[in-house]
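Entry for protoporphyrin IX containing FE complex. Fields follow.
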Amino acid sequence: MSTGATETREAPSLAAMLDPAVLADPYPLYKELRDHSPVHWDPMLHSWIVTGYGEVLKVLHEFSARCAPSPGELERMGLGELAPAAELLVKQMLFLDPPDHTRLRALASSAFTTGRVEAMRDQIQSITDELLDAAIPRKRIEMLAEFAEPLPCIVTAIVLGVPIEDYHRLKDWSVDFAQILSNLQLDPESAAARVPSVNEMVAYFERAVSRPKSESRPGLVEWLKNAEVNGDRLSGEEVIANLIITMVGAQETTTNLIACGLLSLLRNPEQLEKLRAHPELMKPAVEELLRYESPSQKTSRKAFQEVEVGGKRIRPGENVIAIMAAANRDPLRFPEPDRLDIERPDNRHLAFGWARHFCFGAPLARIEAEIAFSSILRRMPGLRLEDQTIEWREHMGLRGLKALHLAFD
Ligand code: HEM
């Protein structure tokens, strides 16, 4: 058994992720890392990198999620201006451990019920139809800008209960916030440049939360404000912090599932044709697209105590990066993991995470994806890629395309 300090280094660093060739196809890098060792120490990132399915599962079950930088840590990184936002960050469910997480998640779940999500189906279908209507006569679409970006942003505005016309701002703030969370370690300067955006976003939600009931509309702002479990309620700061993490979690991930999912289908035409011929396969197809190109590729954790994972001894407080996208291509768990198979049996992928932090919005994301793919396949016969260079977004954690030009008959 080895520790971070003693491991000999042969494997590449995960920092290679931002290399354009790796961005285009990170799976050979993940395979190399996993073949080297499903748990290995990356001195450049000062973190353990976990790439095996069983090992990622263990990390998601047993490790601490308190990974948000504290205001003091940000100060030391020269990002002191971000300190007020950090105060909110540490109140977001994503960065809490039990019992704080259990309490917060119970209150949030009581506000965002399956019934409230299911009730949005018709509205999601109408927004989908309206966005596609604009492209149908042209027989061409830039799938990101015209559909995969606006759909989840508009749905998010509705979920929150804020004016739909604000959706562009919600989108911009989410992009900035996700960049800060994901690239803080590698690129602190670009994080600092996004400080004004974070402050603006916080001020927006402060105003939304302080609006009187008579001026508000149904949605998470109201539902979280009124959530109550056994007489316990969320504080104003907790409401704002968790509105923000819900907004950020809801947008780019769903955009990327739709756009990358379409690209995966177009690159595997026999699977696309099978789905067209058998629309009843839509649910398993969405799960396979989540496994195959996981929109949220990785997450961070810290060890609570000294623990062994994959033959390595991890000390308390050491950083761990669990790569769900690598686990989802682990041949020990998924036979022929690099093959897209919309009928894959026993497809318990980790694209929504696992255990207590399992995605809060998974039911909504699944509905959006099912409606989006079904409507596109139904209304865009002969869907094909236009001649283009496929470019991927420069992001360590969120896997997404810059654009996707498609034509149809
Ligand atoms: C395809 C779309 C989505 C993907 C791939 C995705 C992925 C994930 C993943 C991997 C996690 C766990 C992170 C961790 O354990 O560190 C997570 C958590 C979360 N997601 Fe999603 N998500 C998606 C859509 C959504 C939507 C639509 C919402 C909101 C409506 C949302 C809100 C959240 C929240 C609030 C958490 C934190 C849960 C907690 O810490 O208890 N996500 N998501």
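NOTE: DSSP finds 19 helices and nine strands in the chain.
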